[in-house]
Structures are given as structure tokens and as C-alpha cells.
Design a protein that fits this description.
alpha/beta; Polyamine Oxidase, Chain A, domain 2; FAD/NAD(P)-binding domain; Guanine Nucleotide Dissociation Inhibitor, domain 1; 3 domains; five-stranded parallel β-sheet; about 20% strand; globular
Length: about 575
């Protein structure tokens, strides 16, 4: 029976997104997971179901951090009338680790230095995208015209080409040589998932005191160990780590993290916000500072809404608790100034990563287990470099040569190159003849849309890497990084040295490990951290006055979904704490 890839529309409806998710689960032989995934990634119940709108007037809440977690929490708390103060260290930028960089004043030429995509399964993310009426289009995850460049061998991004030209570079078994690399990857990652019952699988997207033995096993071993247990040889692991550098970067991390990505279908049928992901935090910001916002609809009267104060350029330096009334003091200062201030609040939502929380002065300290989690919870490094080009060299050539969206992968230090999807047009409902690995979307045909020309300016992500390679590249002098990246992009594309010197007209780079308000890119557990820290990380402190939010305390680590969902959960928690008084 032929299976055809469903069409990916712009601005998909909920029904259309469900269809795409269903297709992904069916082709991966677990359609029974659909309802659980949707339920677990849905936004929580609306905060007005906890207490009525406008009933929390005069209650003060501090939110530490103006990223998506803090913004979603503030947006929900405002419905109940809370007086909300947001402390954000950034002076000029909104969104935390959502970072769209614009190269032109008209904001048409941009690249993403933080997250750049989100899957159809992330229900909470879509909840707010739809609420703010933001326009979306497909983010092309896989393009067969892109490249795999390993140990000096360049092939197009086609599994058969990798098998023919790159396999001989590695010591694979005869059986492994006969299997396409996406299938080998599935053997390592999806086979274990299919061994679990649907009830156990759904624990992957739950925060629990105790997990099933099968989940704890996945958390106990690192990715390499579980690849070995699946029967892969050292040569196959080495090959997969090179062909797919994401695997190579995280071999020593918890296998549980891979199950999380696979179970939620995080890398199949992805989308982006037209105009940049920063439009989402900006929508929150403008709504929060608008005295008459329209986003709350007719059910919440304007007079019920709480007041919101945005303190940009204000760095939180500590927390303390008043023993008599339980209020929490937020100690802060203006960035680059010495003088300290403090203000008392009834509740605090801490939406800054543990890497920054580690530097705060806490009096008293949080619980012993929380302090341990803050100290050791793993936050990974990541580096990105984006280039503005006077022409889109990657889109030039014949239809078999043009790269319209998708990404190239390499064992060079830049790891991956990502091409914009804005010129793409879906042209074929191609037959799905094979299952693609968990970090690849399903193969589709894309062409240049009408009116799009390669001779126009464009922005592409010239380097996106993680862990050790991101630190290695990020440690070069900032002025040297663009040249290093250009030379490696030329090598991946088979271009003469210096070819890009007259094409690249501007650039922007970031090493998230060195960013003062992040000190890392995203949370990615090492072995046993899920069982040890997932529950304790989100538990309340200071006699249930301090709540926690952010991707680092979520079930969707490294995704906007995790920040948004925990922000809503923290807001509901604050409302629940006030419920006995109404």
C-alpha cells in the first residue's frame, strides 16, 4: 500500500496539525500515542478556572526573567488582577533565548540565533501563536539536495549516497553496510520506545516522583551505551555520530533525552513564524504593556486585569524571605551599576535558568535537594553564526542542485548549516518509501516559489553546533570566527577558498555559554538527572511562595514549548495558593 506525505500548509489549523502528527506516529508504528502526546503537551486549564478573573487585585508577584516562561506566566496572572513586576536584565532585547537578529531596518533579512523552529506536536506553543494571530510556514527539516560532508567526502543528503561513499570510511559489519543509516539510527532509538507500553511511554512527558523501571533504565545509561546495547558496532556508532553530528555531540548524555525527542515527534513536520520567532515574545510584551489589550477576549473585562511593570536592564542578585509574613524580597540592581535595591512580593515566579540562579544570594537557602539541582543540572553549550549574503548561492543551479531549505551536516566544527525556507514551494506529494530517523523529517520535494530568485539577498545559518565543538569555535576571537566559518562552509559545499568573501556582507555570532543572562543554551540531562532532579527542580520554595518556570524545569527541555507550558503552570500554581482566600 502506498503512503503519501500529507501537505504542509501555512498557518495550519488544529485539524491539519493533528493530521501531520498522526501521520508521523502511524509511520513509526505507534498511532496509539496520539491522544497521550496531545494531552501532555496541551496548555493547562485556563487560570480563570482556578479563581475568577480580577479577584487577585493588590497581590504582588515578581517574575524573574523576561523570556517566554516569564512572559506567559505574566500574561496569565494578569487575568486575575495580580500586580506583576517583571525583572529582565536585557536592556534592548525581548525574549530571553529567543533571539531573532535583523540585518536591515525593514526587518526582512533576519536569522535566528536562538530557537528557529517548533513541531506540530507542541500544543502550548501553538496555543499562543494562534492567540496572537501570528503567521507560520513550514520549516524544511530535510532536503535531499543538501550535503553530508564527512572525513573529506561530500555527498548529497541521500541515504544511498551516504551508504555508497561514506560507509567505506568506517569499520561497519557486513550487515550494517547493507542498511541505510536512518534505519540504523531507528534501530538504536525507536526500537526501545516500541518495546514500552503506551502507559509507560507517556511517562516520558510527565514529571513524577517515581518512574517505571524501563524509564529509569533509559535514564541510567548514556546514548552511546544504549546504542551499543541495541547491537550497533563501534564503527556504526562512529559513522552515525559523524553523519548526524547532533548524535555525536550528545553521546554522553542521558538516553532518556533521546526518548523524549522521539516520543513527542519533535523533529517531524516543523514550522517557523514568518518575520522571526521574536514576534512571539514581542506579542506578549505589547499585550502586557497595553492598558486595553484585545487578547483576553470579551469574557475578561478590562477592569479585571492586573497592572504590569517591566523593569528592563534590572539584574536580580538575590532573594530573601521575611519570617513574619512570608513575603519574599527581591534584591536587584541596574545592570552595570553598583547600588542595590529590594522590593517585597507576595509570590515570585523564578523563570531564569539554574545557571544564573546559581549566582544569586539566597537567604535562607532553598532546600538541600533544590540547591544540589541548581548546582549540577546540565546545561549545554551551543554556538550559532548567521550570514547575510548579497545572493543566495545555495539556491543556484539546476533543480537537482538547488538547496531550498533544510540543512547540511558535517564532522567539521561547524556541525550543521541551515538554509532559509522562505523561498520554498511544496511541489510533490512524494511516496514515502522509507522511514526516516528520529532527527530527520520525512522527505518532500520543494522548489523555488514563483517570484523567488537566487540573486536576491538572503540569510542562512552558517554554523549551528553544540557542546565541545561550540566551545572550541566560540573560544576564538570574535573577529576570527566568521572567516573560520566561511572556510568550512566552502569546504562543505565544494566551493573554492575565498569564494564567500564577496558574497557574505554581514554576520552575527553568539556563544550561548558566554551570554551573561543564559550561561548556556538549553538543558539536556546527563544520566540519572531525570530521576534525580526533574521533580525537585520544579518544586516550590520559601514556604510555597517561590515558583519555578522555564525549559530547564519542563518536560520539553530545549524547546519554547517547555518555557511556555511551565510559565502557565507556575501562574496556575500562584492562583491555587490564593484560592483559599476567595
Amino acid at each position: 500500500m502506498k503512503t503519501f506525505i500529507p501537505y504542509q500548509p501555512n498557518n495550519p489549523s488544529t485539524t491539519e496539525r493533528y493530521k501531520l502528527l498522526n501521520y508521523t506516529l502511524e509511520i513509526n508504528k505507534r498511532p496509539e500515542d496520539f491522544n497521550n502526546i496531545v494531552k501532555l503537551l496541551n496548555p493547562p486549564d485556563d487560570i480563570t478556572t482556578v479563581v475568577p478573573a480580577g479577584t487577585c487585585k493588590g497581590i504582588k508577584v515578581a517574575i524573574l526573567g523576561g523570556g517566554l516562561a516569564g512572559l506567559s506566566s505574566a500574561f496569565e496572572l494578569r487575568k486575575l488582577g495580580f500586580d506583576v513586576t517583571i525583572f529582565e536584565a536585557e536592556k534592548k532585547r525581548i525574549g530571553g533565548r529567543v533571539y531573532t537578529h535583523f540585518f536591515d531596518r525593514s526587518n526582512h533579512l533576519y536569522g535566528e540565533l536562538g530557537p528557529m523552529r517548533f513541531p506540530v506536536s507542541h500544543q502550548t506553543t501553538w496555543h499562543y501563536i494562534n492567540l496572537f494571530n501570528l503567521n507560520t510556514r513550514p520549516f524544511i527539516q530535510t532536503n535531499e539536495n543538501a550535503f553530508r560532508y564527512v572525513r573529506g567526502i561530500r555527498v548529497r543528503n541521500q541515504p544511498q549516497a551516504v551508504q555508497q561513499c561514506i560507509y567505506p570510511l568506517f569499520d561497519l559489519t557486513p550487515e550494517e553496510r547493507s542498511i541505510l543509516w536512518p534505519t540504523l539510527e531507528s534501530q538504536a532509538f525507536e526500537a526501545y520506545l516500541l518495546e514500552l507500553s503506551p502507559e509507560i511511554r507517556k511517562e516520558i512527558l510527565q514529571i513524577k516522583e517515581l518512574y517505571s523501571p524501563e524509564i529509569n533504565k533509559a535514564d541510567y545509561f548514556n546514548i552511546r551505551q544504549m546504542m551499543e546495547k541495541s547491537g550497533l558496532s563501534d564503527g556504526a556508532i562512529e559513522m552515525l555520530s559523524s553523519v548526524n553530528p547532533f548524535i555525536g555531540a550528545f553521546l554522553n548524555n542521558s538516553y532518556f533525552e533521546i526518548l523524549n525527542e522521539v516520543y513527542a515527534a519533535n523533529f517531524a513536520f516543523m514550522y517557523e513564524i514568518i518575520g522571526g520567532l521574536v514576534k512571539l515574545p514581542e506579542a506578549f510584551y505589547h499585550s502586557l504593556l497595553n492598558p486595553y489589550p484585545c487578547e483576553y477576549g470579551p469574557t475578561i473585562p478590562q477592569e479585571a486585569l492586573g497592572k504590569v511593570q517591566w523593569k528592563s536592564g534590572h539584574q536580580v542578585i538575590g532573594l530573601s524571605q521575611n519570617e513574619k509574613n512570608g513575603c519574599v524580597a527581591v534584591h536587584y540592581k541596574k545592570v552595570n551599576q553598583f547600588h542595590h535595591h529590594h522590593e517585597h512580593f507576595d509570590f515570585v515566579v523564578c523563570a531564569i535558568p539554574f545557571s544564573n540562579l546559581r549566582l544569586l544570594k539566597l537567604n535562607p537557602l532553598f532546600s538541600s535537594k533544590k540547591m544540589h539541582a541548581i548546582r549540577v543540572l546540565n546545561m549545554e553549550a551551543s554556538q550559532k553564526t548567521i550570514f547575510l549574503c548579497n545572493r543566495r548561492f545555495w539556491e543556484e543551479g539546476s533543480p537537482q542542485q538547488r538547496i531550498i531549505g533544510g540543512g547540511s551536516a558535517t564532522d567539521l566544527v561547524i556541525n550543521t548549516i541551515w538554509y532559509p525556507s522562505d523561498h520554498a514551494q511544496f511541489i510533490s506529494n512524494q511516496e514515502a518509501s522509507q522511514k526516516i530517523g528520529c532527527f530527520e523529517s520525512y522527505p518532500c520535494s520543494w522548489s523555488l516559489k514563483k517570484g523567488a530568485v537566487p540573486q536576491s539577498p538572503g540569510v542562512f545559518t552558517a554554523s549551528y553546533n553544540w557542546t565541545q565543538d561550540s566551545i572550541r569555535l566560540g573560544n576564538f576571537k570574535e573577529e576570527d570566527i566568521p572567516k573560520i566559518v566561511m572556510r568550512q562552509v566552502e569546504e562543505v559545499h565544494g566551493l573554492p577558498k575565498g569564494y564567500l568573501d564577496k558574497i557574505v556582507v554581514d554576520h552575527k555570532t553568539i556563544q550561548w555559554n558566554n551570554h551573561p543572562w543564559s550561561l548556556g543554551a538549553f538543558t539536556f540531562y546527563t544520566p540519572q538527572q531525570n530521576s534525580l532532579f526533574s521533580k525537585i527542580s520544579i518544586e516550590l520554595e520559601y514556604c510555597n511562595r517561590v515558583f519555578f518556570a522555564g525549559e530547564h524545569v519542563s518536560v520539553s527541555r530545549a524547546w519554547m514549548q517547555g518555557a511556555l507550558q511551565t510559565g502557565m503552570l507556575a501562574a496556575n500554581g500562584v492562583a491555587m495558593a490564593c484560592k483559599p482566600y476567595f
